[in-house]
């Protein structure tokens, strides 16, 4: 199709017939006419169709796009999870000033709801998704207003084709081991033990050789590299008592050779920062970023890559990306089950200098949250810190995270009413906490800290933490005597 030139925008890469159909219909529209069609919503949200939709936006051709879920079986023979849209386009002489949108409708009447049917200008759309020029999927007018206001204040993480568009100096890597193509390198625990390898922490050694764990998505979560461990043929959650043990390490399903791991990583970083690729906008959390040891990584854990001189900044970046403020933005932009590279690049993230001004506040909190086990000793070493791991205390962690989230709401310029509203959009988290605690505890803690920070700022004084002792205080660290034999003073990492 590309060779014929008939479909220059959709006849490229992984071709889908609905996209080609949409381009054909657009080309058949008279300069002053209009065309309506039913196509998959990906025509406006996916990276594969960004060239087509950005051309529509640049030429001011979009009249309206009304997105539907098929949960009520509008199309009985189509799966309930398939999303489609009513897309109306104007001819090339239309030059429309605004586009009308509605997302996640279940029936025709939903698009007549004035709260769900909203207008976006071309300027607003390009502000939110400047790289792809695809449309965000706002549920309602308030989501659109809050998100566009955030993007007027806060830049995207990485602006393509702009020499100054990567202030964080990061690039992305799709994990280091493809779970299919690299499977010939994988070894199970039984494989290694039967071949005479000895377990050392969560590595296997034999003479001077080493196999390191292959980290995959279920093993990690926000600020936690010990979220799950592989046992009896499946991954299970790590228990609170295990997390309180600084010598406990998560075990993977597979191990990979250390030399091959180092070759694929390709530099001398002593710890890594990744995110969970598979996450939906309706999950408990969507953007899930975690620091983890230098080890093998599967392709469902994409990685941030940064020069060693910029590595310390990643602690600040992880705090911003794991915040509710950033997560709310992500939920307006992710319509599939993946946090792809193009979605990550376009998340709103404060500039490095804006976060660096708060480094003394952010860094010790991230350190105490992440450094809870000896296998992350290289993480604090890269930051110039020396300490045993910090104690896992769930109540204290909740307060630390509340302080970080409150600060991020302020740095994103989000007012109190909007912060309250944003926290209520995390439905699954809210319902789970009300069931467990009898209240939405996370919301209460964050808004209390938000108010305290606001009051301190208004009074011209520094905010005082509610944590006693303060974050990353030496008294919160384990005893040096807990250091296991597999972590030596002179040699850490694979």
Give a description of the structure.
With 494 residues, the protein is of the alpha+beta class. Helices cover 33% and strands 16% of the residues. It has 18 helices and 16 strands. It has helices at residues 17-27, 42-45, 50-58, 122-128, 141-153, 189-194, 240-243, 258-265, 313-321, 324-331, 341-345, 352-356, 359-370, 377-382, 394-411, 416-424, 427-437, 441-458, and strands at 34-40, 62-69, 83-90, 98-105, 118-121, 170-173, 198-200, 203-206, 209-215, 228-231, 234-237, 255-257, 271-275, 289-293, 296-297, 303-306. The strands form four sheets. Strands 1-3-2-4-5 form a five-stranded mixed beta sheet. α13 (359-370) packs antiparallel against α15. The protein is globular, with a radius of gyration of 24 Å.
């Amino acid at each position: 199709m590309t060779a014929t030139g008939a479909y220059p925008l959709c006849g490229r890469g992984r071709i889908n017939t609905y996209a080609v159909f949409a381009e054909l219909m657009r080309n058949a529209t008279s300069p002053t006419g209009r065309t309506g069609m039913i196509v998959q919503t990906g025509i406006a949200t996916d990276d594969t169709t960004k060239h087509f939709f950005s051309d529509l936006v640049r030429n001011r051709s979009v009249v309206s796009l009304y997105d539907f879920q098929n949960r009520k079986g509008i199309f009985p023979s189509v799966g309930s999870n398939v999303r489609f849209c009513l897309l109306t386009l104007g001819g090339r002489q239309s030059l429309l000033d605004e586009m009308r949108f509605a997302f996640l409708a279940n029936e025709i009447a939903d698009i007549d709801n004035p709260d769900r049917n909203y207008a976006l200008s071309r300027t607003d759309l390009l502000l939110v998704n400047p790289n792809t020029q695809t449309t965000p999927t706002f549920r309602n007018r308030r989501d659109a207003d809050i998100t566009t206001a955030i993007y007027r204040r806060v830049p995207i993480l990485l602006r393509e084709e702009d020499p100054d568009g990567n202030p964080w100096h990061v690039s992305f890597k799709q994990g280091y081991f493809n779970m299919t193509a690299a499977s010939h390198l994988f070894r199970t625990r039984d494989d290694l033990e039967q071949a005479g390898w000895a377990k050392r922490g969560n590595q296997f050694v034999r003479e001077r050789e080493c196999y390191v764990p292959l980290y995959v998505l279920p093993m990690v979560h926000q600020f936690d590299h010990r979220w799950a461990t592989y046992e009896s043929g499946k991954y299970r959650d790590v228990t609170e008592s295990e997390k309180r043990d600084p010598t406990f390490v998560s075990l993977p399903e597979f191990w990979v050779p250390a030399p091959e791991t180092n070759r694929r990583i390709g530099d001398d970083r002593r710890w890594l920062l990744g995110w969970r690729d598979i996450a939906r906008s309706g999950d408990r959390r969507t953007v899930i970023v975690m620091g983890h040891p230098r080890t093998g990584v599967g392709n469902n854990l994409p990685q941030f890559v940064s020069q060693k001189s910029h590595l310390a900044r990643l602690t600040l970046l992880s705090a911003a990306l794991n915040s509710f403020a950033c997560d709310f933005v992500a939920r307006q932009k992710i319509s599939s089950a993946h946090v792809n590279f193009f979605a990550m690049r376009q998340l709103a993230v404060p500039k490095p200098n804006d976060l660096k001004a708060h480094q003394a506040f952010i860094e010790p909190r991230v350190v105490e949250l992440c450094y809870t086990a000896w296998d992350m000793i290289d993480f604090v070493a890269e930051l110039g810190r020396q300490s045993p791991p910090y104690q896992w205390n769930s109540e204290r962690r909740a307060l630390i995270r509340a302080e970080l989230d409150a600060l991020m709401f302020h740095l994103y310029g989000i007012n109190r009413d909007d912060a309250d509203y944003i926290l209520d959009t995390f439905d699954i988290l809210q319902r789970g906490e009300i069931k467990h605690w009898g209240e939405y505890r996370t919301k209460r803690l964050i808004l209390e800290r938000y108010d305290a920070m606001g009051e301190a700022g208004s009074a011209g004084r520094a905010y005082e933490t509610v944590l006693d002792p303060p974050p990353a205080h030496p008294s919160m660290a384990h005893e040096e005597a807990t250091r296991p034999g597999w972590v030596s003073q002179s040699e850490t990492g694979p």
